[in-house]
Every structure is written in structure tokens, then in C-alpha cells.
Amino acid sequence: PGAHGSSGKMAAPMDRGSRGAEPGAAPYGNFPNYSRFHPPEGRVSLLPQGLLRSLFPAATRPLLGLDVGCNSGELSVALYQHLLGLQDSNSSPEAPGAGRELKLLCCDIDPELIRRAQQSSPFPASISFASLDIMDSRAREPFLSSYLQRFGRSSFDIGFCMSVTMWIHLNHGDRGLLDFLALLASLCTFLLVEPQPWKCYRAAARRLRRLGRDDFEHFRSLRISGDMAASVTRILTRDCAMELVRSFGSTSWDRSLLLFKSTSAPPEGSDGGTASQ
């Protein structure tokens, strides 16, 4: 889950460096121990083996991935291992059976979480972690362009947005959610999204109130509400030139894993497979 500041700037939450264990002290989703209560295995176990091969059967160059709101990187690493068939091995990505090469760029607004991710990453040559407010276009555009240019690319093959949509929505409102999803759709050929359900919005607001903090600026004015998986699907398919390829079911904490594909262009270097297995 990612942390994203309000007003489109690198807005730092109060006392970011000393959040403590109270989850309500992370109003941007930048929980310091997130993977302890939503372990990565709960997501990656829903994804089929060989997913990358089925999506990119003709890829002849490294695939590029973007993980937005990566927290301290545990889920990013688990996704990387699962997608390349390394989840049961401590071997390097170049080992036999590792499958396709994947370069994964992971970003989060919280520099403390990014430092932890960088220090603990077992695949520093393939997984890059960076502190970035994805909603700040002045910081985002040159950073992402620079990364893509290193590979001679203009977009990512696959994006991951895991339990991030709510934090964007609460801190940037309906317009922010629409802009965020449009951005991801413009950046990625395939997009895996795990939207938080509406009950999580109410719980997040309650946590802030319990701490005596101001409510989320946009919470009471949100017009996009209710079934958030359906809303995210409708926005991406109606407004963002994407199609829903597959739902991989729901996690034990009731969050859907939805895979979308851009309808505007075929994958670069691929003939554009689908998750058909």
C-alpha cells in the first residue's frame, strides 16, 4: 500500500519518522509493519504460475514493471519471486528455470519505508526502490521518463497497484482517483489492481478520529463510493481504454485482484497474450 501526499505535492504526514504501531498514525497508507497483518502470500497465491509467460509469450527483451505504493517492499519482492518462479528458491534471477527477465521499479512516498526496502532487497540488480509521490507530476514525469529511457521504452509492461486506490481517493478526492487510474492506464500495458472496499474507507476515517486528528479532507464529499472494485473497473474500462482480462478472486481480507489490459496499443516486443489458463 502506498502513501501519497495531498495537494499533489510531497506532503509529509505529521511525525512521519515516528509513527509507532498505531495504524491510524499512517493517514497516507504508509504503515511501518504492513506485511505483518496483510502478508504477501495472501496475494501472490491467487496469481497463476506462468502468468508473465501467458501475458508476454513473444517478449524478447526484459519486461518492465511498476509497483506504485510499495511500502517497505515485502510484497514487491514476493511478486517478483512468484512471477519469475523463484518463490521456492534463494537463487538469483539468472538461475535455471527463472523464466523471463523482469526489471521492477517500486515507489512509495515514504523515504523511511523505501530505505528499509533498499536495505532488505534480495534482488537489487532487478528491483529498484525509489521515494516518489506519484501524484506530484513535477517529480513523477522526469523520474519515470528517465527510468524508461534507460531501457529505450516509453511505457511499462505491467503495473501493480496493491491496496493504494483508497489512499489516493481519501487524500485527493474523486478527481484524484480518476487522474491516478488514468495515469496508470497510460503508463502500463497490463495493470494488476487490488482496490480497497468501502468498509476500509470507513475504518480509516474512524482510526483518524480515534487519534483526535482531522478527518480526511475529501471523505465526506466522495461521490464515487460503494462497490469500489466495480467503480475502479468501470473507470478503467470506460474512461481509460483498458479492458478487464481476469479477476483472480479475493484475498482472505476481502480484496479483489483485478487484471486489466490496455486496448490502445499492443505490448512492446510482444504479440499480446492473455491470461487464459
UniProtKB/TrEMBL annotation:
It is an enzyme of class 2 (transferase). Keywords: Cytoplasm, Methyltransferase, S-adenosyl-L-methionine, Transferase. This is RNA methyltransferase. It catalyses: a 5'-end 5'-phospho-ribonucleoside-RNA + 2 S-adenosyl-L-methionine = a 5'-end (5'-bismethylphospho)-ribonucleoside-RNA + 2 S-adenosyl-L-homocysteine; a 5'-end 5'-phospho-ribonucleoside-RNA + S-adenosyl-L-methionine = a 5'-end (5'-methylphospho)-ribonucleoside-RNA + S-adenosyl-L-homocysteine. PANTHER family: BICOID-INTERACTING PROTEIN RELATED, RNA 5'-MONOPHOSPHATE METHYLTRANSFERASE. One of its GO terms (biological process) is methylation. GO terms for cellular component: cytoplasm. Its EC number is 2.1.1.-. O-methyltransferase that specifically monomethylates 5'-monophosphate of cytoplasmic histidyl tRNA (tRNA(His)), acting as a capping enzyme by protecting tRNA(His) from cleavage by DICER1. Also able, with less efficiently, to methylate the 5' monophosphate of a subset of pre-miRNAs, acting as a negative regulator of miRNA processing. The 5' monophosphate of pre-miRNAs is recognized by DICER1 and is required for pre-miRNAs processing: methylation at this position reduces the processing of pre-miRNAs by DICER1. Coiled coil: none annotated. The keyword Chloroplast does not apply. SUPFAM superfamilies: S-adenosyl-L-methionine-dependent methyltransferases. Belongs to the methyltransferase superfamily.
